[in-house]
Amino acid sequence: MTITQLKYVLAVAEHQNFTKAAEKTFVTQPTLSMQIQKLEEELDILIFDRSKKPIELTTVGKKIVSQAKNIVNESERMQDVVDQEKGFIGGDFRLGIIPTVMPTLLPMFLKNFTSKYPKVHLKIEELSTEEIIHKMLDGHLDAAIAATPLQQEKIKERALYYEPFVGYIPESHRLSQKKIIEVSDLDIDDILLLEDGHCFRDGVINLCRSSKMSHNETFQLESGSFETLIKLTHEGLGMTLLPYLHTLDLSEKQHKHLRYFKEPPPAREVSIIYPKSELKLQIIDAMYQIISGVVRGAIKFQDVKIISPV
C-alpha cells in the first residue's frame, strides 16, 4: 500500500470516473486503474463497484476512503513539518474565493503573492460559500476567502478585513437627496439583490432584518452581478447595496450615486478560512500577510457593525 495508491482512490471517489481521476492526478488511465487494482488485491476487497455508472464505492470502499483521507492528510502534515523546518514555502495550494470578493480582491494581491512566492502553485476556484464548506470538509480545498462568521466547527477563520456596505442610489430615488444614509432608511422591497446563493445577498437581508423590516413579495428582482444591479437602479427599479471594494472600480459619474452609512456602518467580515488540521499553514500565513497588507491601504473604515452572512 502506498500514499500514491490512496491518492488515486480518493480521486476516483471524487470524480466517480477513472478517466477523469487520471487526468486530475496527471497519470494515464491504465496506470491509475492498475494501481487501484493492486491495492484491492492486496486488501482482498473491492473498493469500487465498476458495474455502476457512474462508478460507486462499495460499502467497505466508503470506509477505506474515510481512512485514506486521514492517511493522506497525515502524510501531507509530515511534509508540512519538514517544509516549515526548512523555511520552504511552496507546493500545490487550492484556494476558493466567493464571487462577490473574487473580482475586486484577486487583482489586488495575486501578482504580489506569486512574485514573492513563485514556488507556490495556486489553483483558484470561484465558489459559493456552501461549495467552499463542502469542498473544504471533503479535503479538496486548502483554504478559502469568504464572508464570516460561518460557525463551522471544523473550520478556522482569520479575519482579513471589514468591508462596509455602500448604498448605490439613482437620482430618482427617495434617498438620493440624503448625503448620509441609515439602516432605518432602507426598505427591503426597494433593494435590488444578488440572486440566491450569494452570501452578500444574505448579508443584505440580515441587515434589513436587524432593522425589523418586513419583506413582501409584490416585486422581486435578482441578478448574478453588481454591474447588472447598478444598471437596473437607473431604470427606476430601486436602489442596491455594494461592498466597499467594488465601489473603487466605479466611474466618476457612478460615484455620484454612492451614499455611505452613518458610522458605525454595516459591514461584512472577510476572512481567510482553512481546515482545523492546519495543513500548509506556512502558505496560509504568507497569503494572510500579503492580503491584509494590500487591503489595509484601501479600506480605512475600522469601527463597523458586522452583519452575519448566514
TrEMBL record:
InterPro entries, per the entry: LysR_HTH_N, LysR_subst-bd
* This protein's UniProt keywords: Activator, DNA-binding, Transcription, Transcription regulation
Regions crossing the membrane: none
Q: Where is the HTH lysR-type domain?
A: 1-58
User: Which residues constitute the signal peptide according to the record?
Assistant: none
Naming one, the record's GO cellular component terms include:
protein-DNA complex
Which species?
Answer: Halomarinibacterium sedimenti
Q: Which GO terms describe its molecular function?
A: DNA binding; DNA-binding transcription factor activity
- Tell me what this protein is called: LysR family transcriptional regulator
What does the sequence similarity comment in the record state about its family?
A: Belongs to the LysR transcriptional regulatory family.
| Superkingdom, natural source | Bacteria
| Cited PANTHER family | HYDROGEN PEROXIDE-INDUCIBLE GENES ACTIVATOR, TRANSCRIPTIONAL DUAL REGULATOR HCAR-RELATED
